[in-house]
Specification:
This protein is α/β, with parallel strands linked by helices. Helices cover 37% and strands 25% of the residues. The C terminus is likely disordered.
Length: 251
C-alpha cells in the first residue's frame, strides 16, 4: 500500500514541489492538500493519513495549535514539520513531532524521512541470551522495552512474568543458552523461548509454600494458550500467547 500523505502549506508552489518529489520517488499517495490550519485539521480528521507534512507558518492558526488539533483528530498520523520558520515554538515542536526539516534542506532528505516513517513497524523481535543467571533479568528488561515500543502496555506485567518463567526454565533446568522470539498480531502477543536442552518442562501441582516448580502453572494462568514443540535434533520451543484487547493493536 502506498504511504498516504497530507500536504499542509499556504504556498501552492511548495506543495507542488513536494508532491512532484513524492511522485518521482514512488510509493506515496498525496491524499489531500491544505493551505490553512483549519483545512488541515479537517482533512486530517476525514482522511486519517499516514503522514502529515506541516508548515508552521500558516495564515490562520499558530503552528502549535494546528499540530495539537491534528494529533487530537488523527492520532495515528505521523507529523513531519517542513518549514522555513524559526520562532519561539521551534524547541517545543521539535520535541513533539516525528520529524523536523527546514525548507533550506535538500528536498530528498525530506522524502527519505517520509519513506522511513511510512514503513510499517516491525512485528517480530528476537534476541539471544547466554547461559547465565543474569539472562533472566535481561529477558525481562528486553521484553518490557519491546512491549512499550509496540504500544502494548496493557500486557506488560503478564509478558514480563511469562518470559521470566520461560527463560528461567531454559537457563536453569534445560542448562542451555536460549533465544527469545516475540511476535505481534492484532489479537495476540506471542513469546517463544528456544533452548538446546533435552526433556520438556511439566506443570507441577500447585504448592503455595514451594520455592520452585510453580512457573508453568503461572504461565498457564495468564496465557490464552501455551505449549512445547520439539525441534529437529535437540532442543525445543516453549511458547505462550497473551490475548490482546480488541482496541489494543497499534503497531
Amino acid at each position: 500500500m502506498p504511504i498516504a500523505v497530507l500536504l499542509v502549506d499556504d504556498a501552492e508552489v511548495v506543495r507542488r514541489m513536494v508532491r512532484t518529489a513524492l511522485r518521482l520517488r514512488g510509493g506515496f499517495e498525496v491524499v489531500g492538500e491544505a493551505g490553512s490550519g483549519a483545512d488541515a485539521v479537517q482533512l486530517a480528521e476525514s482522511l486519517q493519513p499516514d503522514i502529515v507534512v506541516l508548515d508552521l507558518g500558516l495564515p490562520d492558526l499558530a503552528g502549535r495549535e494546528v499540530f495539537t488539533r491534528i494529533r487530537r483528530h488523527s492520532p495515528g498520523s505521523r507529523v513531519v514539520v517542513f518549514t522555513g520558520m524559526e520562532g519561539s515554538d521551534h524547541g517545543w515542536v521539535t520535541g513533539q513531532v516525528d520529524g523536523y526539516v527546514g525548507k533550506d534542506a535538500d528536498l530528498q532528505y525530506l522524502v527519505d524521512l517520509l519513506e522511513t516513517l511510512g514503513q510499517p513497524p516491525a512485528t517480530e523481535a528476537t534476541f539471544d541470551l547466554p547461559h547465565e543467571l543474569t539472562s533472566v533479568a535481561a529477558a525481562r528488561r528486553l521484553v518490557a522495552q519491546q512491549v512499550t515500543d509496540w504500544h502494548a502496555e496493557q500486557l506488560l506485567d503478564d509478558a514480563v512474568l511469562v518470559v521470566s518463567e520461560l527463560a528461567t526454565n531454559a537457563i536453569t533446568h534445560a542448562d542451555s543458552p536460549c533465544r527469545v522470539r516475540l511476535s505481534l498480531t492484532p489479537g495476540t502477543f506471542r513469546i517463544d523461548v528456544i533452548d538446546a536442552g533435552s526433556g520438556t518442562p511439566e506443570p507441577q501441582l500447585t504448592d503455595l509454600t514451594a520455592e520452585h516448580g510453580r512457573g508453568l502453572g503461572m504461565v498457564a494462568a495468564v496465557a490464552a494458550a501455551w505449549g512445547i514443540e520439539a525441534l529437529p535434533g535437540e532442543g525445543k520451543v516453549v511458547w505462550a500467547e497473551l490475548k490482546r484487547p480488541v482496541d489494543g493493536y497499534q503497531a
